[in-house]
Design goal:
361 residues, alpha/beta, 4-stranded parallel sheet, two-stranded antiparallel ribbon, 15 helices, 8 strands, globular, monoacylglycerol lipase activity, PNPLA_dom, phospholipase activity
């Protein structure tokens, strides 16, 4: 069975999946000992934007070739560094914000760039601890460059440029903005990547057919959705010009709408794939869809809001497992499958058993 972890984009709201991953890793440690880490159990980890940063923390090797971060360190990372990545002086400066709408991003990204480069150093994509395509040398970039590219949210942080070089000295340039522009929920991208590798004969971990959800175990973690039907309405939006769509009461409606919509669409597609083959329990999506106020923002990094996001992550564990109703397109609680906490415990057992099976063989 191929195992997949996917983590959505969402700025400061990465605290939510960080809280859930800490719980999952604790369950794995109960089964396999204190040294168990998330990267030991997933063949593919996909992350967009803030999810990409979390992915790097989980999969980047330290000097002992073990993950630099344990999952329990993720939330403390956000608590320590987010106020410097998204400084309040920049966030609450209305004149500066209006100026940036026409002259530059809301934040200069300098602190984030220095932080990521210091943490990840010279680690490249091919050195990560999960399965990564290593054949294309031109894509074997520094992991820090990939993180800065996938987190460069338009209007929030500057785009990121870098180059790679193949064995013949030929250079390839990359001009990147936030991955959420294309795939805020990268679950489908991860599944497609696996299927593509199978078709090309490069995926050797599991003998399976492309898009065979019977042989996949997929955990998809959201960063929460705003109550858009309450946050925005057609009457107000009809009065917006260009600036209104990119700045409204401290938020960016355009980013909110396409980011949340793309995440939901991926959930519908993946849910359909698994439900069509009657193996829906192999796909677990954990998402909060009722965020409001500061908790729905991408960049409000006050201590109060970050504590709220941690509480939201904890409360999600107690909520019932939800699954998309294919008729309505909306997630609904599933009778008889317990809470997200219980589902994660079941996933932890399946992941542990799969790893032991491979080690034993």
């Amino acid at each position: 069975m191929v195992t997949v972890l996917s983590i959505d984009g969402g700025g400061i709201r990465g605290i939510i999946p960080g809280t859930i991953l800490a719980h999952l890793e604790s369950k794995l440690q109960e089964l396999d000992g204190p040294n168990a880490r998330i990267a030991d159990y997933f063949d593919v980890i996909a992350g967009t934007s803030t999810g990409g940063l979390i992915t790097a923390m989980l999969a980047a090797p330290g000097s002992d070739n073990r993950p630099v971060f344990a999952a329990r360190n993720i939330t403390s990372f956000y608590l320590e560094h987010s106020p410097k990545i998204f400084p309040e002086s920049r966030r609450n400066n209305f004149v500066g914000t209006i100026t940036n709408l026409v002259a530059g991003p809301k934040y200069d990204g300098k602190y984030l760039k220095t932080l990521v480069q210091e943490l990840l150093g010279s680690v490249t994509v091919s050195q990560t601890l999960t399965n990564v395509g290593k054949a294309n040398v031109s894509k074997n970039a520094l992991l820090s460059d990939v993180c800065l590219g996938t987190s460069a949210a338009p209007s929030y942080l500057p785009p990121h440029y870098f180059e790679t070089q193949d064995s013949d000295g030929k250079k390839r340039s990359f001009d990147l903005v936030d991955g959420g522009v294309a795939a805020n929920n990268p679950t489908l991208m991860a599944i497609t990547h696996i299927s593509k590798e199978i078709l090309l004969g490069k995926f050797e971990l599991v003998d399976m057919q492309p898009m065979d959800s019977n042989r996949m175990l997929v955990l998809s973690l959201g960063t929460g959705l705003a109550q858009l039907e309450e946050k925005y309405n057609a009457g107000d939006a009809a009065k917006w010009g260009l600036l209104g769509w990119v700045y409204n009461n401290g938020a960016t409606p355009l980013l909110d709408i396409y980011g949340d919509a793309s995440s939901d669409m991926v959930d519908i597609h993946v849910s359909t794939l698994f439900q069509s083959l009657r193996n829906e329990q192999n796909y677990l999506r954990i998402q909060e869809d009722r965020l409001a106020g500061d908790a729905s923002s991408l960049d409000i990094s006050t201590t109060k809001n970050m504590q709220t996001l941690m509480q939201i992550g904890d409360s999600l564990l107690k909520k019932p497992v939800s699954r998309v109703n294919l008729e309505t397109g909306r997630p609904e609680p599933v009778q008889g499958e317990g809470t997200n906490e219980q589902a994660l415990a079941r996933f932890a057992k399946l992941l542990s058993d799969e790893r032991k099976l491979r080690v034993g063989s």
